[in-house]
Amino acid sequence: MDVFARLESEVRGYCRGWPTVFTTARGSRLTDENGRTFLDFFAGAGTLNYGHNDPALKQRLLDYLAADNIVHSLDMHTAAKRRFLERFDELVLKPRGLDYKVQFPGPAGNHSVEAALKLARKYTGRETVVSFTNAFHGMTLGALAVTGNSMKRTGAGVPLGHGVAMPYDNYLDGRTPDFLLFETMLDDSGSGLDKPAAVIVETVQGEGGINVASPEWLRGLADLCRRHGILLIVDDVQMGCGRTGPFFSFEEAGITPDIVCLSKSLSGYGLPFAVTLMRRDLDVWEPGEHNGTFRGFNPAFVTAVGALEDHWTGEGLEKQTLKKGQQIKQALDEIALEHAGAVADVRGRGLVWGMETRDPETAARICAEAFRRGLLMETSGPNDEVVKMLPPLTTTSEELTEGLELLGESVAAVRTAVPA
Hints:
The chain is an alpha/beta fold. The protein is built from 14 helices and 17 strands.
């Protein structure tokens, strides 16, 4: 462990909560170099929706590499890219009536967000982008400008401009009528709010504390944007690829965003891959106007096609995800009832859930106790007060039961150690 402390930057984070050296992984479990196995309720922050080292996806990848197929290609045409575009259109876009163009902006979610913000400003000729309280969209400067967390924003080291934050759904426990402030400011020439190029929103705020927007609120937001000529960007980087049930998290609300950001589990295997989807008429880029060295990572095209074909040719995965979500909710409600002095709220959708504790130290201690028991979880929220659960969608019901029992034991241990 000395080499990490000696050579790796102090910016490292997750390893501080999980002080061990991991070596192998399969499905919903990781093993460290001492042979100890951990149940994964983190899934690479939502990057491993189909679990670790899925055997079918791994075989596709091995076969592709063994045949000396193209790995790096910038934005050149390749057979692997063609296959991905064909299958993504056939299995994802057309069944949902979506007529999007696909941009490959770079390997990570923040690249997708940066491309979306840049495109919205180019298309509209306007500069301001509206985001929401407790939003998280990435760590690059443009994405940070529409992120709410003050610690992350301060890390930019420069002023973050051209972004305005509005209250997210239920930000004030229902005391602020939906969109009243936003629309009033839009209509008031003295409000100081320039007409935005776009609004960017997460349907479920992951890093912000598992805040779930209602379908009604999302429909209201989409309607407001349409009436005022503002582009609607949905950041589905963490909540897409089935995390909330359907492939896109906005499907439940019945809305069609103008631009969609997608990454994390898109490759299906944990390989870097991101796309920015845009309404066809929004594709006003000049050739090479927005590019990047690693925007055509062919191994990710290969595993992405495998994930689509193996998991999205029917409704099985969506139904199982929603069913498992109910299993988690029931268990969390029972934990919250038993430990009401420590747990303030339970919320989530599909297989993303948060258990809000009454103080941040409690959430951190619960995750530490869980690690000692062989369960990986992390905290989220503006003060890290929420215990966050993102198990792989392929986690079995039995594994969920095992993990939830470990969570209950961890909460009880914290409560015993620090009486209310």
